Amino acid sequence: xxxxxxxxxxxxxxxxxxxxxxxxxxxxxxxxxxxxxxxxxxxxxxxxxxxxxxxxxxxxxxxxxxxxxxxxxxxxxxxxxxxxxxxxxxxxxxxxxxxxxxxxxxxxxxxxxxxxxxxxxxxxxxxxxxxxxxxxxxxxxxxxxxxxxxxxxxxxxxxxxxxxxxxxxxxxxxxxxxxxxxxxxxxxxxxxxxxxxxxxxxxxxxxxxxxxxxxxxxxxxxxxxxxxxxxxxxxxxxxxxxxxxxxxxxxxxxxxxxxxxxxxxxxxxxxxxxxxxxxxxxxxxxxxxxxxxxxxxxxxxxxxxxxxxxxxxxxxxxxxxxxxxxxxxxxxxxxxxxxxxxxxxxxxxxxxxxxxxxxxxxxxxxxxxxxxxxxxxxxxxxxxxxxxxxxxxxxxxxxxxxxxxxxxxxxxxxxxxxxxxxxxxxxxxxxxxxxxxxxxxxxxxxxxxxxx
Amino acid sequence: xxxxxxxxxxxxxxxxxxxxxxxxxxxxxxxxxxxxxxxxxxxxxxxxxxxxxxxxxxxxxxxxxxxxxxxxxxxxxxxxxxxxxxxxxxxxxxxxxxxxxxxxxxxxxxxxxxxxxxxxxxxxxxxxxxxxxxxxxxxxxxxxxxxxxxxxxxxxxxxxxxxxxxxxxxxxxxxxxxxxxxxxxxxxxxxxxxxxxxxxxxxxxxxxxxxxxxxxxxxxxxxxxxxxxxxxxxxxxxxxxxxxxxxxxxxxxxxxxxxxxxxxxxxxxxxxxxxxxxxxxxxxxxxxxxxxxxxxxxxxxxxxxxxxxxxxxxxxxxxxxxxxxxxxxxxxxxxxxxxxxxx
Lengths: 452, 343
Hints:
A: 3 domains; 3-stranded antiparallel beta sheet; B: alpha/beta; transmembrane (chain A)
């Protein structure tokens, strides 16, 4: 106000100006405001740019992981090799290992190539087997063991191509890059091209990447994120069933029942501090308490879930207390006024009204826990672990498993560049989960939240 | 208070089922990240060919693995520790203290360590241990005197090397690879340049001189990589002058980005390492708790399968991935079959 009188006031004695003409000072203030708006827009634009660049690189790098090159060839399941006694006894059949099946598949490939008139440009015809993944022998063996009647027949198999052949069709591997590579030669790519022309080889969508289990370093083409997804699922169950009730009970007590004194103050401060503790600390705690002291099994999703529960609790408590605080005191007063007990007023009136906020906080907390790797490092959930699909609910909680982010981290570490591609693909799947959870949280808030 | 009941019962169920299912049915392995690829290949084939579930292989480094191995005997300790170096006496003592007394040592083969740089970077094609020592040691011999490392370019001490800034990415001290690097490259270079002799002549004890030889310069020209080889690869990618220390198997999977240099005139290949011509190689091991054999199903079968000719032999999948097959594999097989423990 004093500015106004000083600059523009009629008592000032300076030249009379219309209110519509801007003085230098007003111009400066307006310019400052415009500048501030530009900064804001700039900040948003920069943020959006990074987001778009990030999403673009994730999608561009990760989409190829969802496709895989397959070879379809007829394989003759020779009785003389697979069942020498001819009695189809499962115990005898199991004695033929994958090393016994390998030559069978290789010769089937050579036969198929010759039938199609594709020349094999190797001194040793056997060398052409590098086109196929090393998983093929196990695939054929599993089929035969599951169905011994197939022995003696010629069966069509859809087999995985090796990671470098697959990389060639995805543009990751070129003939030049193979010059110094001892895993595959450029001639293999010539054969692969001819096989595509003959219809023996095809790149198509690969559901095994989403639902399959982890594979060893030598066969990235076989690896999938499915088992670690199940590991994550069981951990989230543990987190949900422990963190939600404990967190809500704690916050209701602190918010509605606890007396205000230095003890509750201390607890409050510590809860806020806990929310800021780096997650790896919870991992160390989990290792010491759950594994070394309580003797729970290592690498188990149950332990992972317990550790993540500790990490998620503060988030849930803080958001629950915020939503309890947002319920107006008049609701409590009205309930108490008509004769409800303190507990009735909380459980019949306050809690239902605070529920959307509590659920939102829980889902955000779960999403945070789902993306956490650091604490899992210490309780043995990172490595070549997610290789067995758990065969039941107890096994789901207790048998060793990994989690999605841990699996992605593990893949990104491995030597074969094909694993790098799969790591990006895993990120896409993880992001889909996180986005879904966040969208559910937003919808809950929009639909059920009441404002006063 | 239904949720309190729920929580209580959830914890109870968890506790009960944990004790009920504590009989572990798969082998648990942890340790060296260098051995991890081989162990995972074996574990996968083991799960495919045997009636046992696929063993679980965790990474974390040789020292961390051996530490967990020595925590004690029982189902919630690991059965096998992978190591890219021999177990130390200190670790054996720690094991014994925790009750882990009968340890079976298994050597699976050899691994070469290569010095690699960007494929299109400066022509680092031939190194001697002396070159690496001159480039990376804290103190070097210059004009007959021991001085703090003054070199900034490779050509400063060896005109045959490119005039490129010294920048090296070496494994951090928690890696087993670091020890091999120090002993077989830095120490060898120290002796070859005469720095060792000069240090002893200046009044240092032999041990102190060795320690001084293996000290790496700290002025930022040598960077310790505590992560995995992928991290070293990323650093090399961003640094045209960078030299990185890799395992042979990792290099062979990334020949489209990296080139290696010869060491003392020998190129690193599985053949030259097996014959002992290539100087920088080391044996890889795993250690088994004998007390777990017969308790954890499949443990002995896993160990025997690991070193079988089908897997670890010269034509097996491990050799294909980059392991240098052990010429004395048959002796190791016999030792495992007889469950011979370490003395």
